[in-house]
Design goal:
Largest interface: A-B, 35 and 41 residues
Radius of gyration of chain B: 33 Å
Distance between the termini of chain B: 44 Å
Number of helices of chain A: 3
Shape of chain A: elongated
Structural class of chain A: mainly alpha
Strand content of chain B: 15-25%
Radius of gyration of chain A: 21 Å
Helix content of chain B: 40-55%
Largest sheet of chain B: 7 strands, mixed
Number of strands of chain B: 28
Helix content of chain A: 40-55%
Number of strands of chain A: 0
Oligomer: heterodimer
Distance between the termini of chain A: 52 Å
Shape of chain B: globular
Strand order of the largest sheet of chain B: 16-28-27-26-17-24-25
Chain lengths: ~60, ~850
């Protein structure tokens, strides 16, 4: 039965981890806009036929 | 493919079939082809601009297309057909962007930027033109157009664009100019500077909800062994301690809102519904603590934490409102950030942008086309054509000549004008309204809500029952232990959590269902305040009557909500004028009539002139206007009489006030029948309101020309014309002092004071994205006829809450019988509490939906129902 103490410790730690993850997501504003990502995900970038355009800007992957 | 796209039009032909061959005659193109960029139908007769096999309505749209295709951003056009905004062609060195010169002003830049480092600056703009996924895509690929911009993020619902750029490479003005050249002009108002509370308000509640959810779940886990009869004292003690540990943050952190609410209400000498709730929570918590620490028992921690969790869920449900609508706008949202101030003498006069806040009485300013007048001033140069639609709701511009006093809030259309300010901005005719005490931040809520009224009785009776039962066990049965048990158990079980749960759930559902029908409430409490209103006050212009012609920029933004809406931008507005003539009027006769009526300021003349707007002018002389009768003049050397039946010796019996008769050269021609100016469906609404014992009043800033139209519904004494914004506010206050609860329905900025002073202020708008004054609710004008239904529905919602409160009392009786006997075991409490809560949520949800279902069958004039939630 003593394994229970261990299990309780693990379960509480895991749940605390989820709580911390949620708090982090709130703090970084991930819950601020729940609508736009649903539109954003539907548009794929077509491959550029002129790669020189991307070279001028190193932050393409950011957006 | 490495060849530049420009030289390879076939690339686009594969994606979108070319609409018309380039060689087709211009005539056929002109009638059928919409602009490839903005979708505006090219005018018949006008040549569309052709470029790369696509047709454009103007060079402005073509320029945008060329720019996008050069940067390989034509995916913009494949995501949605014709996603663009009509862009006025830039001529030469973009002179129309001179008005953005103020963005070079260091103070202005500092005020606008969210963050500024040496090589990085953050700024957030409100861009009203955002309406589809193409906009989103293009703006988020903005970096390809402008190398100085490193990142853009769009918040679609709020129509905000967050930009990160390098100030060493581009200036703020260049960024805005680039956005503007694409048709996404940010709206920069004085309000942007007064940024307050950047952190969204919902976050603190979600933190508490998360903590409560985490703790309640684990407490339930540790309480399970107790339900199942686990008797190992070691584990029982450990679980008890863990529960205590987990319940502490729930009570003192998650439940902290109840402490502040109770403290506030007690300081005011009232007992609200939160008092018995907090009492129940605290008693359960401390009794549990005692049981765990002293007796090694289990306590009621599972019930307490679950209760707090459910209550917070209810609050959260109620709080999810329309945060993309703003209910707190004041004149600052309308006013520009900077204007051009003129300096120097009459020779060598120079204008320089200056922040509006620095303007002083006596300053001379220049107001260009499309700019807003920031403070009252005398016009001393130029011809004003002032559009007061923001202020009064009347969209027809008023002509002004030199020497006229122009009020703040008007928008100049036409050429630029020079003004000398006669008042400071905050003291102007319109803006001084905000100095009124009605706008002080803490406006006491006049109506006491049902929950708070119940709270008093509830708390007192629970305390009496608990004391009686406690003294019975202590005095008669001489069992002090049971007495304490019973006393505390009653306080715990009688906790009116059910009422405070059915409240937010029912009202939250009501809020969302009303939103579907075009009534957007500021918060759910407005539903309850609506039920108390016994008096409805309407503003006339723009609310009951329709604004005559809709300015183009307003119809444009409508596409965000309804992409299928046909684009009728360039159609003439006939304004519901029917011609009854025999033989029918010739085009020349129409032109004659128009030339005459255009000279008159009478409302009927103005509407007639507008409906005949396409006719060419004809030489007109010797015009005389006889008040109350009509106009007579010499048009093209013929006498034309326009006016009432008596004035024109009309043979027919048509003496209606909305009929205009015409006589040309001694021969009676016929008459124009002008449809009532009331918005469609309003007659039914006003009749329904009259029938339901509500007092109706009408306030108008206009002359009393519409008095006759409205007489069927409003008593003569209940109609007030020629009201100033301040008059309206005082009128509402006078009604309230006579004990009425007032619902104000208005639209323009001049109603802002009345809307604020009223118990419930509803702002009517043709477009929810358009600016509306501060109000409790925003109503789409299509849905205005449903106002009686909205009132009925809100009363239904409150009845539902009362019924569910009655049901919850039944549960309390069951719980009390256990408690009074001293046998309230934790498991009974743990079962009763969620069971009653679930019942209430069910009643509230099903009930509100059922009430809304009746809505659609009852409403004879149901407006469009929106699918978005």
């Amino acid at each position: 039965m003593h394994v229970l103490f261990f299990m309780i410790g693990i379960s509480l730690t895991m749940a605390l981890g989820f709580l911390a993850a949620f708090v982090w997501s709130l703090r970084t504003g991930q819950q601020d806009d729940l609508y736009t990502p649903s539109l954003r995900i539907l548009t794929d970038d077509e491959p550029l036929s002129n790669p020189s355009l991307t070279e001028t800007n190193p932050t393409v992957s950011k957006s | 493919m490495s060849a530049p796209v420009r030289q390879n039009p076939a690339t686009f032909g594969e994606i979108i079939p070319t609409m018309a061959p380039v060689s087709a005659p211009a005539e056929t193109l002109a009638t059928t082809t919409p602009c490839y960029h903005c979708g505006t139908l090219c005018l018949p007769g006008a040549d569309p601009v052709l470029f790369q096999g696509k047709s454009f309505c103007c060079t402005g749209c073509r320029e945008v297309y060329a720019l996008l295709s050069e940067h390989q951003l034509c995916q913009y056009y494949t995501l949605n057909p014709a996603p663009g905004t009509l862009v006025e062609p830039a001529s030469g060195t973009t002179p129309q962007l001179d008005r953005l010169a103020y963005l070079d002003h260091a103070d202005v830049i500092a005020q606008l930027l969210d963050f500024k480092g040496e090589h990085v600056a953050h700024v957030t703009f409100f861009v009203p033109a955002i309406h589809c996924s193409s906009c989103l895509w293009l703006l988020e690929h903005f970096y390809r157009l402008e190398p100085g911009i490193t990142q853009t993020r769009v918040d679609f619902l709020k129509k905000q664009v967050h930009l990160v750029y390098d100030p060493a490479q581009v200036s703020l003005r260049q960024v805005v100019e680039r956005l503007t050249s694409l048709g996404y002009e940010p709206l920069i108002s004085l309000n942007d500077v007064v940024k307050e509370g950047a952190k969204p308000a919902y976050r603190s509640l979600l933190y508490r909800l998360a903590v409560a959810g985490f703790c309640a779940g684990n407490v339930m886990l540790f309480s399970f062994p107790d339900y199942l009869g686990l008797d190992d004292p070691n584990f029982k003690h450990l679980f008890g301690l863990l529960n205590l540990l987990l319940a502490t943050p729930v009570v003192f952190y998650s439940g902290s809102g109840y402490f502040t609410s109770v403290w506030k209400s007690l300081r005011r000498g009232q007992i609200n519904i939160d008092v018995p709730i907090l009492l129940g929570i605290l008693v359960a918590y401390f009794r549990g603590t005692y049981e765990v620490l002293a007796l090694g028992g289990a306590g009621y921690f599972d019930s307490v934490t679950g209760l707090v969790f459910f209550l917070l869920c209810g609050k959260w449900f109620q709080q999810r409102t329309y945060d993309f609508l703003s209910f707190e706008r004041d004149y600052k949202s309308y006013f520009p950030l900077a204007v051009s101030r003129l300096t120097g003498g009459s020779e060598g006069e120079q204008d320089a942008p200056v922040p509006v806040a620095d303007l002083r009485k006596g300053d001379r300013i220049r107001v260009r086309h499309g700019e807003l007048i920031p403070a009252d001033g005398l016009l001393y140069r130029g011809t004003g054509l002032i559009d007061y639609s923001f202020v009064t709701g009347e969209s027809e511009p008023e002509p002004k000549t030199t020497g006229a006093l122009l009020y703040a809030g008007g928008r100049q259309t036409g050429g630029s004008i020079d003004l000398e300010l006669v008042r400071n901005m905050s003291q102007s005719y319109l803006t001084q309204l905000w100095n009124n005490e009605a706008f002080s931040p803490e406006k006491a809520n006049l109506t006491k809500s049902f929950a708070d009224a119940v709270g008093t009785y509830f708390t007192v009776s629970v305390l009496i029952i608990a004391t009686l039962v406690g003294s019975y066990w202590y005095g008669w049965m001489e069992q002090p232990g049971t007495a304490v048990n019973a006393f505390t158990a009653i306080l715990i079980v009688a906790c009116p959590c059910v009422l405070s749960l059915s409240y937010p759930v029912a009202l939250g559902h009501g809020l969302r269902l009303l939103g579907k029908r075009g009534l957007y409430l500021k918060n759910a409490d407005v539903i309850e305040q609506l039920t108390h209103c016994d008096t409805v006050v309407f503003d006339k212009t723009g609310t009951l009557t329709q604004g005559t012609g809709e300015p183009e920029h307003l119809t444009r933004a409508n596409r965000g909500t309804d992409p299928q809406q046909p684009k009728t931008k360039r159609q003439a507005n006939t304004g519901g004028v029917a011609e009854v003539f025999s033989p029918p009027l010739t085009d020349f006769e129409r032109a004659m009539i128009r030339s005459l009526v255009v000279q008159s300021a009478h409302p009927l003349s103005r509407r007639l002139a507008q409906s005949l707007g396409d006719c060419p002018p004809v030489l007109t002389e010797e015009i005389t206007e006889l008040p109350g009768q009509g106009l007579v003049g010499l048009v093209d050397d013929r006498i034309v009489k326009v006016g009432s039946a008596g004035f024109t010796d009309a043979p027919t019996g048509q003496t209606d006030s909305s009929v205009v008769h015409v006589r040309i050269e001694g021969g009676y021609r016929g008459y124009f029948q002008l449809a009532s100016q009331l918005r469609s469906g309003l007659t039914t609404m006003l009749t329904a309101l009259n029938r339901s014992n509500l007092n109706l009043y009408l306030l108008s800033g206009d002359t009393d020309s519409a008095r006759a139209d409205l007489r069927p519904w409003f008593a003569d004494s209940a109609m007030q014309f020629g009201c100033s914004p301040d008059d309206k506010l005082r009128f509402i206050r006078a009604l309230q002092e006579r004990g009425h609860r007032v619902l104000m329905v208005g639209d323009g900025l001049n109603d802002a004071g009345a809307l604020k002073q009223a118990d419930v202020g509803i702002a009517v708008t043709d477009n929810t994205l358009r600016f509306t004054p501060a109000s409790d609710a925003i109503l789409e004008s299509d849905s205005l006829p449903q106002l009686p239904e909205f009132l009925r529905y809100s009363r239904f919602g409150l009845r539902l809450i009362r019924v569910s409160f009655g049901v919850s009392l039944l549960y309390n009786v069951v719980g009390l019988s256990f408690a009074a006997a001293g046998h309230l075991s934790p498991i009974v409490a743990a079962v009763l509490m969620p069971l009653s809560s679930a019942t209430m949520v069910l009643i509230a949800t099903v009930g509100m939906r059922w009430g809304e279902g009746r809505f659609s069958t009852d409403a004879t004039l149901s407006g469009p129902i929106r699918g978005t939630d």
